[in-house]
Design goal:
Blueprint lengths: L3 H18 L34 H11 L7 H25 L13 H15 L4 H4 L5 H18 L3 H12 L8 H11 L5 H25 L13 H14 L1 H9 L7 H18 L12 H13 L4 H40 L6 E7 L13 H5 L3 H6 L7 E7 L5 H13 L4 E6 L2 E6 L3
Parallel strand pairs: 1-2, 1-3
Antiparallel strand pairs: 3-4
């Protein structure tokens, strides 16, 4: 980024992004994932594969932040924001390196590589597809996996095969999506004729060996089952996955429709294939709002190549930027509001509980509540079933939580029945979450 004004604007925008995400509090499953604070001593078994996941970096971070609760979630945001910036820069570098090989606009132009690189950086930085990761608290593994994946691609294009394989494995231990770069890196190099067909298959053979070793180690160490949500997939789930994919990649898909005659160009089909490679496993299992992130750099290069070959480039970029900033601002504010709702409910539960309790039974009334992923979160998800109150109490109390979620408004008798059953199990304190408020029912001993 040699242009000083462009560099200054980027870094000022990066600082503004960090300031915007810094105060956002966790909600929903950000309190229960592998990187959530763990205040007990590390058991080395936690570093082994656990069913659907093998994320030792998350586990180590969770125990570290559990010993420094005053840094949570601010250190998460700092890490995620900085690594997202690095991912933007890596995308810029990769696009710049491939620039002379990318499809030039009509009429050519000496600055084509620089234009494509800058537009690619812009797309990754502000496209709303990044929001599911950048404004979230538990997405350390998401940004880390993409960072190591992009770094592996960058070194592969420099001919450093050993580093490529090493970086993919490091990234895969952050999140399994990085595994796709075992295919993506040689595919891009072969597609742009930086390596021959023979070299492509040699690299794929090396990748296959490393991949089989990883899977062998993982399966031999893992004694648990993969979560059913990743295996019991319905047609409705696949349709939902496709809808989220189309929604979050809509800027690029729209441009491709407007430039349908160009779809046969090498650049477009190579990076379109890479989007599918990166997203493939999620598309056939669970594809949520954080999953478009791993495909973002490839969508960004498609966007940049298409825009650089169109008339009224500046107008298109301005419209995209204004649209993205508006969506980013709205959903970032919604995410902040959800976190603040959770904080208020958690503090309300603490303030209204007269006697600290080791065990609390939460009753979540979800009737009529709607949300949108981790952006607009329902009250009981913002409250995180009482975990937020644990955090505010520095995990001193309650030590144990149990939750019952009701999807219809209960009658007084139905609510009393649940409380009576809870009392039989030894619970004396009940937190009832409904209509964005907390009701406390407790038996003082």
């Amino acid at each position: 980024m040699r242009n000083n004004r462009g560099s200054i604007l980027f870094w000022l925008s990066a600082i503004a992004m960090l300031v915007a995400i810094f105060p956002i509090m966790p909600t929903f499953d950000a309190w229960t994932t592998t990187s959530a604070p763990k205040v007990y001593s590390l058991d080395w078994h936690e570093l082994l594969p656990q069913g659907s996941y093998w994320r030792p970096w998350d586990v180590l971070y969770a125990h570290f932040i559990g010993q420094h609760l005053e840094w949570f979630p601010y250190l998460n945001h700092l890490f995620i924001g900085i690594v997202h910036i690095l991912n933007c820069i890596l995308t810029y570098r990769i696009a710049k390196r491939l620039g002379p090989l990318l499809t030039p606009p009509q009429g050519g132009g000496q600055n084509h590589s620089e234009v494509v690189a800058r537009l690619s950086l812009l797309y990754v930085f502000i496209c709303p597809a990044m929001l599911g990761v950048v404004v979230d608290v538990d997405s350390i593994h998401q940004v880390a996996a993409l960072f190591w994946g992009l770094l592996s691609l960058y070194v592969f294009l420099s001919g450093r095969i050993g580093l490529w394989l090493l970086f993919v494995i490091i990234g895969t231990l952050a999140k399994e999506s990085c595994f796709a770069f075992l295919l993506i890196a040689p595919f891009i190099a072969w597609g742009f004729r930086k390596i021959s067909g023979k070299e492509f298959w040699q690299n794929i053979a090396c990748a296959a060996v490393v991949g089989l070793l990883y899977l062998t180690v993982r399966l031999s160490l893992d004694q648990s089952e993969i979560a059913s949500e990743y295996t019991d997939i319905s047609i409705a789930q696949l349709a939902k996955n496709a809808g989220i994919f189309i929604l979050f990649h809509s800027p690029v898909l729209l441009l491709m429709l407007l430039n349908i005659k160009r779809l046969k160009e090498r650049t477009l089909w190579i990076f379109s294939a890479c989007i599918i490679f990166a997203a493939g496993l999620h598309l056939v299992s669970i594809y949520a709002t954080m999953h478009p992130y791993v495909s973002l750099p490839f969508a960004a290069i498609i966007f940049a190549v298409l825009v650089s070959g169109m008339k009224r480039q500046k107008a298109i970029v301005i419209v995209f930027a204004l649209f993205s900033i508006a969506v980013d601002a709205y959903l970032t504010k919604a995410t902040y509001d959800s976190g603040e709702l959770g904080r208020r409910l958690a503090q309300q539960a603490i303030d209204n509980t007269k006697q600290p309790a080791d065990s609390v039974y939460t009753i979540s009334v979800a009737a009529g509540k709607k949300g949108f992923s981790t952006f607009v979160v329902r009250d009981y998800n913002a409250f995180a079933w009482g975990i937020f109150s644990q955090y505010l109490n520095k995990y001193q109390w309650p030590k144990q939580l149990r939750d019952t979620t009701l999807y219809e408004n209960p009658t007084a008798n139905e609510l009393k029945s649940i409380i009576d059953e809870g009392k039989k199990e030894g619970y004396r304190t009940f937190w009832i979450i409904r209509n964005d408020e907390i009701e406390v029912n407790e038996t003082i001993l």
